[in-house]
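Lab meeting minutes (informal)
Scribe: AK
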Amino acid sequence: MSTEKLTFMNSWKTDALSGFLVFLIALPLCLGISAASGFPPVAGILTAIVGGLVVSFFTGSELTIKGPAAGLIVIALGAVQELGHGDAMLGYKLTLAVIVVAGIVQIGFGIIKSGVLGDFFPTSAVHGMLAAIGIIIITKQAHVLLGVKPVSKELFGQIAEIPHSFSVMNPEIAIIGILSLVILFGLPLFKNKYVKMVPGPMVVLLIAVPLGMYFDLGHEHTYLFLDHHQYALGPKFLVTLPAQLSSAITFPDFSQLFSATSIKYIVMFALVGSIESLLSAKAVDSLDKFKRKSNLNKDMVAVGIGNTISGLIGGLPMISEIVRSSANANNGARTRWANFFHGGFLLLFVALVPDLIHQIPLAALAAMLVYTGFRLASPLEFIKTYRIGKEQLLIFLITVVTTLATDLLIGVGAGIVTKMVLHLFNGVPVRWFFTPFLTIQKNADGAYEVDVKHSAIFANFIGLKKRLESLESSHTVILNFSNTKLVDHTVMHNIEVLQMDFARKGRTLTVIGLENHVASSDHPTSARKLASKTT
């Protein structure tokens, strides 16, 4: 663990370089996420600028990058469509009002120290939610990538239409989209360290923009393909930006703020955005070579401030975004100034060369989103979940299917209910669902031993964690599961994270008493069930 004191003066060079590299990744993703969300493309850039230039001064996390995220596309698009009833501009302005209030709610979350909610939600349900989001993104962007507008407005209808879209695709648009997809999937296969330093999205733009110019997408025209079918091309296949950034500012419409639809989306933005931010911040902490731990409550307030401002000027909702944050950490960023620089570079680029952004084909952005969606819903995610345990796959699949059939909140709720039902079948008493039953005693050597009775499950882990962290006076804490009937996967996973947190503070958290438990699989964080009754 480094003891170097980090300041702006001794970090700005590495932070500026990392901020620039993240900017190269963020620019196309911001545009693509905006377009996929039913917002003007510039809205995502406004969000990232606010996330960099403003939120950096409030954040509780040194290395996270704040900006729009693919995980919120589904909510944003749903809000625009439901609130606007076919009027895209009205839906956009009404959604901005929802984002403002959701931001205020997130500020409240942070103030009441609800950052611990990141430890509550079952891991498999969260991953199932993200996989469902990935499937939705792939479905909607596959048609854009091929230059086709689907007939169906429903998700399952659009899934069914994908083969038809391939059969009637616009060839020149599809060339741009498919080639972009090949680049994104192909680049990670190269092991050369210099190739790995080049951001995939920038390589896509370096190929797609000249192709768009070659195909003359900037002008309305038609062309014959194989001399038997005529296709139309024009500026509608390119990113549209206002001539000046100031003219992109759009104010929210609060006229329907108290409608049932608005309230539903306020809850969805606030809850899902907060969960994603918390999970991202915790994941990026593990990449920090200085072993710092994010203040999740402070970071929640910062994200809330950012969303409130973003909604007021026409931007998308923001989170601590995992892809850009991971790139930031891997690029050698040292402080929050990297996030600031990333926002500054975006502002300069959009203000000085908006015409260049207008040359970006939408098919290239769709390819980036399809790639992002595939990473969220990769078959490996299903396999990895199965290896943790069959019951985890069941929770995962129920969350995915329910989310696809309804919405994110109901999907996650279904995952949580499924896990609770499984715990009931495993004999967990209802009275210990949300409150851990444990005893604490101090050993002769000064170590505290925490003996957990009945169960250690996702719903009561927050209480268990608080008790463990309250034992600050002891260098060593022993967590004894000898008398615990069930230790679920979420707790096993969170204990691993907690052990790393203890290690950062120079303390030790030791787990004992699992030798008589039967694991649901060979995975180190699989659920454990006591082989014979001891309580």
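Next up, CB showed the second protein from the same session:
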Amino acid sequence: MASVLGEIAKVRTQLMLDAAARWARRSAERERGLDSIARFGPGAADSAQRQLQHARREANKAASGAPVFGERIIGTRDFVAYAPSAQAGAAASPVARITTMPDGGYVAQGVASGLLLPGALLLTNHHVFPGAAYAVGCAANFGYAEDERGINDGIYFELDPGGFFHADAAFDFALVAVKPVGLKGESLAAVGATRLIEATGKALVGAALNIIQHPLGGPRQYAISNNRLVDLLPEGFLHYETDTEPGSSGSPVYSDGWELVALHHSAVPRLKNGRIQRSARAGGGDWNEAHDPPSDIDWVANEGIRVSRLVEQLRRVRLAAPGHQQRLDRLLAQTGDPFESADPAAVLNLPAARRLDMPGHAFNFSGPVTVHVYAPQPEPAPVAAPPQAAEVPLVVEEKKLLFDADYARRPGYNPAFLGKTVPLPSVVETRREELYLVRDYRVHAEEDLDVPAVDLAGAADGDALVLRYHHYSLAFNKTHRMCMWTASNCDYRPLQRQDKRPRKELGGEDWTLDPRIPAELQLQNADIYGPGRRIDRGHIVRREDNCWGAIGLATDYANSDTYHWPNCTPQHEAFNQENPRNQSDPGVYAADGQKGIWGQFETDVAAQIKAGGGRAILFAGPVLKDFFASFQIDGNPPVHIPKKFWKVVVVPEAPKKNARLRAYGYIFSQVDVQKKYGFGFEALELPQFSRNRIKLAALSTLTGVVFPQAVLDAEAN
């Protein structure tokens, strides 16, 4: 399983690299075409044959009574929530928000978009469903849209990968069956379906392309402006300027007449010397994967898979599963073009078509359609070979973390996790007012309608509010806008690690606010992490330690919960990363042989936990007492960056029931790294972490965190 998932990760990497390479390779042709379009209008960059195909189709559509051109809204707003025309509304009906199943105590979470095809088959991307197992427990949500009454939840149909599944990694598409009856008895047939029309000539370069999508897993949106087709690639892809956002993977792309022309799958970043570039808004220069969010990238286009190529690929498929090939054959039997014929007058019972002769061209057409004819385009000049994959950094912008929307039901830290009760830490009385208290939460909940409920049974106003997440809890320091302490349950046993998805398959660095705390109290990207070129968004509860549980949602939610800003602290990259890297100066750490002591320590701890039975309790946090000089960015409140971080590891003495517990306290400093690199070098090498050990009493004095007696009793010598 792990090797298969490793191959999947490689395929997803190659998708982004190939999109960037295709964009770079077509620079000369694309610029010539856009220059022609600027002078003569849409279609000027297309071949005479494509102009003919398009003209004939539009003429035949008009003669048959079908609308020739849908309206195009010109403006600056790229997303609108309401259908701009009846045609757009009809096209939107089969567009689905792909979600997790809204049952089992979980709220449905939107993860991508898809399109219902004839035969109850849903079309989306391979990188959404790289295998049939990924579609298990997912649903197609139709009609999730905003109207005058608010957001309509729509209807849900469970996906049925056992009934049909096929995915193509090279062209990044997947087909999966949808159950015919919805979760509340609705009929899938009533939703409608969109045919795959194999014909080319549905859109000309320079013309508008529209996208219906569910960006960020939210309500349906229409992208209908600033949206032209800029290039048509012979490999079977097309590039366009229409806007998308994370969650738009698998969205249908339409011509300005609302005919399906492509399946959206990837964004294309601007490259310079083989490196992804930041946008002017983000300050320009090379994009740094370690520091910069994907939103800082200078995205130059989006890329989709042409429907004609998609159908061509499907015609080559031979499926062994009983009934699956017949189902695919029925789908392909409906891909003929109703508006294309060598003799449209005969097919549509029209008067004889007029003939227009021009030097080098002959066109048949009928109906009230305007035909623009341009001189044949010159043969493209040879262009340089595309950059090698290894030269281009990877960004997969659209794979988003999946967050549990139900904060009230998060279980938090389990004190009985190791078989003996290990209570939560507390804080010395002199520092209690620094914490985010129960009374602070009550005020927040009274002022803001969107604050999730918290169980406050038995809690006094002056108590610290314990924020519960999946597998961990924390107390938040509102003065310094970071956690005061975290308490987590870590389980590396194989039984709890059966979900083998690699990190990239679970999502990117999508840090989010905790709605239980006012946003202004949470230290966010703009406050320090974005402007600080060598400052990492450092987890306190480590993602890898927390990423365990049942296959699917439970692991997704545990992974994502570590990406809440209260669990984040500013750490120098040469301190946080086991093998630090800096994209703006790649050799700076390699030349020094620098190893990140905090990252090394966390990796070593994980290895020791695995070797010792697989389970541990981890307490950790920043030392919120001794700071570097304050940093203030663009008028935001000053940020105090901690010099030191601490961790306490509590493990059973042996992998047996009722085993004696052992506790070990550690403290690490990033002062030397900051001094050396401009914002520090710990000469310690593994496995000599004993020199960083600290007595728990001394650690309490330093941090203000009071450890429970069960931990003090377990302290190792």
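CB comment: The radius of gyration is 29 Å.
No objections, moving on.
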